[in-house]
Design a protein that fits this description.
alpha/beta; TIM Barrel; two-stranded antiparallel ribbon
Length: 293
């Protein structure tokens, strides 16, 4: 076991220095992967911008019927023009999403908790790799709890997914969960994202924080920022801009899109930030113009 005593606390993150192993393939940390794995990653990350707009609607797997997602069959199709990747459960995808959407699929494969539990950190792998392949998933998403009571079992889930993903060339999206007793600090996210990346995850979903550019620099795979709780639209666009400016490879805005009264316009404004380099001010002006009656 590595000796923790005497370890130097590094301050040199090389912020501003491009990732050294990022050419010729456009996805961070993926140069040495197989063709099939790169094909899936290319479906997720745009080759020109190198970024992605994900839309998470997997909330029902532990929250049940979520405000704004009561009718997936009505909500999702209208948002498709603004979305690169649909992140959902196999049940929601099979029942509510037209198979001819042409969008990449991030399939939620971990489950087992609900809002009735005090501790959400104990999950199982509810979807096996065979069904993930049948779903034509471009990546499989597994929740990872670092520092929580269920850390060991969630890392076991992550490891099993990565092993199977490498066997069948399916990328793994490690979703860094933040429990109620964990602070959303750069210290925590540097630890959590690095652990998940070193386990072999190909993409990491986490939250924005102070010193976010250091979190990104220390992580050898792309980080996609989760939108988290519903914010006023102007604030959500600022979060989106700060995330991309800080080095995020994409955004996964769920509630900040589907709980907006102008959900499509909000998704399109976020897309402007991710793929076209809009500032939050420019995206807000776009949103305001698009929502004028």
């Amino acid at each position: 076991m590595a000796d923790k005593d005497g370890l130097k606390v590094s301050k040199d993150y090389g912020v501003g220095i491009p990732f050294a192993n990022n050419t010729p393939f456009h996805v961070k940390g993926a140069n040495n992967l197989d063709w099939g794995m790169k094909r899936h990653l290319s479906n997720i990350f745009d080759a020109k911008s190198g970024k992605t707009v994900m839309f998470a609607f997997d909330h029902g797997y532990f929250m049940g019927s979520t405000a704004g997602l009561e009718r997936l069959d009505l909500v999702i199709p209208k948002l498709l023009p603004a979305i690169d990747v649909l992140m959902g459960t196999r049940g929601a995808l099979r029942t509510c999403i037209p198979p001819d959407t042409g969008k990449a699929i991030a399939l939620r494969v971990s489950s087992g908790s609900s809002m009735l539990n005090d501790d959400l950190s104990h999950e199982i792998l509810a979807v096996d790799m065979e069904d993930s392949i049948r779903m034509n998933a471009d990546c499989i998403a597994v929740q990872t709890f670092i520092g929580a009571d269920g850390q060991l079992s969630s890392i076991d889930n992550l490891s099993k997914c990565i092993n199977a993903g490498m066997r069948y060339n399916i990328p793994v999206l490690g979703v860094v969960a933040v429990g109620k007793d964990m602070e959303r600090t750069d210290r925590f996210f540097k630890l959590a994202t690095r652990i998940v990346a070193e386990m072999g995850a190909n993409i990491i979903k986490t939250y924005y924080c102070d010193n976010f550019e250091e979190v990104v620099a220390a992580c050898p795979v792309p980080i996609v920022v989760a939108g988290g709780k519903k914010l006023p639209e102007r604030d959500a666009l600022t979060l989106a801009y700060n995330s991309i400016a800080g080095g995020a490879a994409g955004l996964d805005m769920g509630r900040n899109i589907f709980q907006s009264e102008n959900s499509l316009e909000m998704a399109l404004a976020i897309r402007k930030i991710v793929h076209e380099g809009f500032t939050d001010k420019e995206a807000w002006e776009f949103f305001r113009e698009a929502t004028k009656s």
